[in-house]
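Key result, reporting period 2: structure in, sequence out.
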């Protein structure tokens, strides 16, 4: 599968590009979603602020293009902030997202209030998948860096959780209700060692055949 890595100007695009290179996948960095071919996977990377990224997309007139791509069946994989902007709204700047997945992005501080848990959530977390295809990755640790968590309206969209003490935090999603071409990962597979690279490869192959 060919991959287009979207230039968000707030991204970890080069680490993702090198991970795809390692997997011998054809990848390129694009600045306009209209450049995508139908058979390409669009990866939305991102490290930074939700409202700042949305504002950047608005200024570049990319919001409607990305929404139309999602509705037309374009396969999309969001990573970290790139996943969060797929949701309806975020508490980070009280901003609207692309709204291709119904749900909200919430501040972890509100859920951890009264518990001795430091935020942002930075480090390696044990992860549990709810899909047979990815069960082999259960109990593996992946690398996270985030202050906000996604809360899908449809719980069937949750592909995996990570554990933070007694709390389950959504760590990956698949859109199942309307579009089956949208995926998201909260952790950074490209920064999660060989197991993360293996998972990224399996996920891309799964998306290619789904």
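The corresponding designed sequence is given below.
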């Amino acid at each position: 599968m060919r991959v287009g890595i979207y230039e968000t100007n707030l991204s970890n695009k080069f680490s993702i590009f090198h991970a795809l290179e390692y997997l011998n996948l054809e990848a390129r960095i694009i600045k306009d979603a209209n450049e995508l071919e139908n058979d390409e996977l669009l990866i939305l990377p991102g490290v930074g602020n939700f409202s700042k990224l949305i504002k950047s997309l608005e200024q570049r007139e990319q919001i409607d293009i990305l929404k139309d791509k999602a509705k037309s069946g374009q396969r999309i994989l969001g990573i970290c902030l790139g996943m969060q902007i797929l949701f309806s709204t975020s508490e980070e700047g009280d901003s609207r997202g692309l709204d291709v997945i119904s749900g909200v992005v919430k501040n972890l501080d509100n859920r951890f209030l009264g518990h001795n848990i430091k935020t942002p959530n930075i480090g390696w977390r044990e992860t549990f998948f709810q899909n047979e295809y990815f069960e082999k990755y259960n109990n593996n640790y992946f690398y996270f860096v985030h202050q906000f968590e996604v809360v899908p309206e449809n719980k069937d969209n949750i592909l995996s959780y990570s554990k933070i003490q007694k709390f389950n935090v959504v760590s990956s999603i698949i859109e199942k209700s309307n579009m089956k071409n949208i995926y998201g990962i909260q952790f950074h597979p490209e920064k999660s060692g060989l197991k993360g690279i293996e998972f990224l490869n399996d996920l891309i192959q799964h998306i290619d055949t789904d």
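The first strand starts at residue 2 and ends at 6. The chain is about 25% helix and 35% strand. This case is discussed further under Risks and Mitigation.
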